Amino acid sequence: MLMDLSFAAIAIMVLLGVLLDMRLGEATRWHPLVGFGNLAIRLERILNTGSHRFKRGGLAWLLIVLPFVVLTWGLTFWLARFDMLIAFAVHALLLYFCLGLRSLRDHTLPIAHALMDDDLPQARILTARIVSRDTTQAEDSDLAKAGVESLLENGNDAVFGTLFWFVLAGGPGAVLFRLANTLDAMWGYRTSRFNDFGCAAARIDDALNFIPARLTALSYALLGNTRLAWQCWRTQAAAWSSPNAGPVMSAGAGALNISVGGAAIYYGEVEQRPPLGSGPLASGKDIARAWRLVALTTALWVAVICLISVAGAFHA
């Protein structure tokens, strides 16, 4: 927990950050993560050359992440010495900028609506905006799987992991997690260009996500078909390439009683991914069900944090 803040203050800041995200959504102009992404693109072009690319990737991660984390830590530390209310507001604002709950809803529910309206061309266009796989020839089931998988995995990456690190380290913790996750999404590919350079970014993200991912998987299981979610998590997660996405997506698919995974086209090549979940293949309506699962899990996490704050107040 934040050493100098009460449980109640942390709960209020979490609640405020989530409400701001759901009310305002992503900033349409001058979003900090967009600016960070642009800097990451430029730095990668400079350093991802020649030999020793693993070391260069680690150096790039330090050069671009640490200044932002130190800056936000220094700002909140300095403000706390003069005006705690302003410091609280800055912590909540940092959480808002790092959360992506409403963004998940705004990017995935239109896919569900397009699929349910049998508008396959529009569904392909919308899905291509949120996944890296090729959707030009994708069928309804392919697009539905992509939407559900994106919701389940990014529920952890864009929401629950951020909340976890905010509770541990406030605004700077949320910033650290989201920047690390952003670099993993940009550099953590097993391609000839990024296999060495992006290795450090991928491993750091794996480490920061280890506990949040399993808490997310547990939360999905509690709020859905618990028995099936646990069974899928236990038997399927290890086969997935990501040590954190495996538990999250297998438990989430099991909780929803649907199947995802399987073949997908990346960069012109068909990739056979392990199946996850159990039951019928995901359909358009399951994207909306996956969104509800993520939203309910968010409510659960906020409620638990608030309950802990109440318990802490009684013991103070």
From TrEMBL:
The chain crosses the membrane at residues 59-78, 85-104, 158-180, 293-314. Pfam families: CobD_Cbib. It is found in: Cell membrane. Pathway: Cofactor biosynthesis; adenosylcobalamin biosynthesis. Keywords: Cell membrane, Cobalamin biosynthesis, Membrane, Transmembrane, Transmembrane helix. It is a multi-pass membrane protein. The keyword Cell membrane applies. Converts cobyric acid to cobinamide by the addition of aminopropanol on the F carboxylic group. Belongs to the CobD/CbiB family. This is Cobalamin biosynthesis protein CobD.
